[in-house]
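Trying the structure run again after the queue cleared.
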Amino acid sequence: MDRTRTIFVAILGVTAVTIFAVFLFRPQPDPVVGLVGSEKIPFFQDERVQEALQSHGLDVTVQKAGSREIATDYNLTQYDFVFPAGIPAAQKIQQEHNASTSYSPFFTPMVIASWQPIADLFVQQDLASDEGGYYLLDMEKLLPLLQNEVRWNELEGNTVLPVNQSILVRSTDVRTSNSAAMYLALMSYVANDNNIVQSLNAAQANLPFLSGLFLRQGLLPSSTQEPFEDYLVKGMGHSPIVIIYEAQFIAQAALQNGTILPEMVLMYPSPTIFTEHVLIPFTDAGRQLGELLDTDPELQRLAIEFGLRNGNLAAFRQFTSEHNITLPDTIVNVIEPPSYEVLEGLIQLIEQTYQQPGGQP
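Done. Tokens:
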């Protein structure tokens, strides 16, 4: 009996040592640290995304920043990758850091988050059309209202929001955020007789108007999540029309937690503009992450759950259909932003107006 007990104890000991050795010496995921736009933080913090990345040997930690802030305000040498929204911000980073490699695994159109009564009012004013579940907003027809600083109570027949406030599309701060830069790119196109602005000289005539789109809003948030949260929480009186990423609305609606109310609707600007989410790696681990996000079916599927479009259009349509989210099958009236040099120059000119008397801090 003693001999049997001794053998049994020895076996247990060997087993315990083996398990400990396997645990101690098994390959651990490589730590990967990145700076990303706020709209992608929920994706990276999702446990399923973390597990999928760890299964490929990557332990990814992300920090939040506005996309233009990433390009202008950070020492990027301490990061394995950056992941801003928007090609202009990505181009600035690549040029200044001599980074030739990039990945664009996701994209999302810019949309206007609004309310059923506002959308109906815009249809009555011939500014928008009801497409059965979403709306198209004619930006060329909206332009004179913004240029002439028309107030809500000056719209004929407006009983839904008869307030003495200017009609303004709420946005983020163009000095820090890609969504505001995309709004600037869109409005510069419409104000330039539906032509992409080719130079800063060509934009000068519309500079007071373009600056006013942001200055007249007052203090603005630096990242896109903030105005969207205001839209969700503060209601139509505070946020009647807000420019956001389509992905934000889809992801929130898919939660089905009551935060997207029945009267909340999307209006698609016509024309609109896409935001490409561009990952720029600085290390081998950053490159591995970019390749995974670009090609891994599980990570692509999870990205769709956060409203991000990618190459798998069938899966995107299936997901939105399952969650009763009505979107346009095809977005056809899409423009490109101006070149990096022109858009960056425009932002810098607007930045200067903030420093003039009456500008915002």
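The longest strand covers residues 103-115. Worth checking whether this holds up in the mutant runs.
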